[in-house]
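> example.struct
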C-alpha cells in the first residue's frame, strides 16, 4: 500500500467528516490498524505468527522483526565510529 492509497482509503472511510477546504484535516487511525498496515508493509502480506498469542505479543514480535530487518543505519554508523575511536585510544 502506498501512502496515497492509505490516505485515500482513510478519507473514504471518514468522508462524512472530510471537508476538502480544510487542508489540515487528517482522519484518525486506530493504533492496531496502523501497526497492521506497517507490519504488512515491512514484513509482507503473508507474515504471521503461528503460535497462539494475544495481539500485544504479536505486535512485540513484529516490531522486533522490523527493527532487525531495518536497523537505524545512522546509529550503527555512529557506533562504528565511536568504537574505532575507543579501540584507537586503548592501543595507545
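> example.seq
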Amino acid at each position: 500500500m502506498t501512502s496515497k492509497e492509505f490516505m485515500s482509503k482513510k478519507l473514504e472511510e471518514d468522508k462524512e467528516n472530510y471537508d476538502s477546504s480544510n487542508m489540515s484535516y487528517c482522519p484518525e487511525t486506530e493504533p492496531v490498524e496502523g501497526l497492521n498496515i506497517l507490519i504488512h508493509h515491512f514484513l509482507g502480506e503473508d507474515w504471521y505468527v503461528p503460535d497462539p498469542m494475544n495481539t500485544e505479543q504479536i505486535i512485540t514480535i513484529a516490531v522486533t522483526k522490523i527493527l532487525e530487518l531495518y536497523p537505524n543505519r545512522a546509529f550503527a554508523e555512529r557506533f562504528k565510529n565511536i568504537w574505532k575511536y575507543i579501540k584507537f585510544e586503548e592501543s595507545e
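> remarks
The chain has four helices and no strands.
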